[in-house]
């Protein structure tokens, strides 16, 4: 069975973009792949985090994984920092095959460091893509389900794997990318040119998975729309296209069916329907997540770390031997 690996940062509440762009994909993949899904806390600390909030978010993201359909009996779930091989392999890749020229091409560092300037950004933020490569390569991953903004990092992973294999002999599988067409990049409700993001300055950019029905209704009413009034799925109407994508992915209706449902109706009717679809998804999710205890989460994470640790250690032994370390 082929293997898949992916993860989400515990840097705040998960939102619809996290689910539709990534986790929804994972749920269907866990029946087809040997699946590993990580809470990537080492990535989270590339920017400043409050320690107590970080601890809470790690547990809450794990609960969300389970409540959204990631089954611990089918998929391995663990916290990245519980398996030291992630950081260790990152360093080995840094020293053997990662190049400054590779890293300077990474657009996400430029985006994330832009506000305060690269001089004030952490070295970890700059090196983030190599740690991501280590995450993926440790588990002989065949397929990586990611959002569109992470494709460049997976391409770097592929480059590093091929480079290492050429220098030291076949060691790493060169992974493929899996994108969900409609959900590959869920955009902000307040700006269809920017992705839905936990770090957005406005709360009207995103809908968190824990938003109440009243908050959802308020955010959807304020969501940006395009000129005109027809409900049309078109690149010429990027704001409306984004809202229709969200509607389609949560309702399992095609975009054509949604267009047909709203023939002769306006944006107000469409937004009311979208609000109902979102609330109908969030209500049972919230009931389920609130039923999961911290103790249950810790049990899942402990078991996951033990399993992941064994797999990672085997790969690290192979890597160290190839590099020339005494094993």
Describe the structure.
The chain has 327 residues and is mainly alpha-helical. It folds into 2 domains: 3-179 and 294-323, HUPs (Rossmann fold, 3-Layer(aba) Sandwich), CATH 3.40.50; 203-289, Tyrosyl-Transfer RNA Synthetase, CATH 1.10.240. The chain contains 13 helices and 5 strands. The protein has helices spanning 16-29, 41-44, 51-67, 85-96, 100-103, 107-113, 123-137, 151-168, 213-222, 238-251, 255-261, 267-290, 294-323; strands spanning 3-8, 34-39, 75-79, 143-145, 176-178. Strand 1 (3-8), helix 1 (16-29) and strand 2 (34-39) form a beta-alpha-beta unit. Helix 4 packs parallel to helix 13. The longest helix is centred in the C-terminal third of the chain and has 30 residues, at 294-323. The mean pLDDT is 92.
**How large is the count of helical segments?**
13
Please give the CATH class of the largest domain. Answer: Alpha Beta
- What global shape is seen? globular
Which runs of at least 5 residues are low in confidence (pLDDT < 50)? Answer: none
CATH architecture of the largest domain: 3-Layer(aba) Sandwich
Order of helices and strands: EHEHHEHHHHEHEHHHHH
Find the CATH superfamily of the largest domain. HUPs
Q: Helix amount, in percent? A: 40-55%
**Average pLDDT:** 92
Number of strands: 5
Give the termini separation.
29 Å
Largest sheet: 3 strands, parallel
Rg value: 21 Å
Number of domains: 2
What class, by secondary structure content? mainly alpha
Report the portion of residues in β strands. 5-15%
CATH topology of the largest domain: Rossmann fold
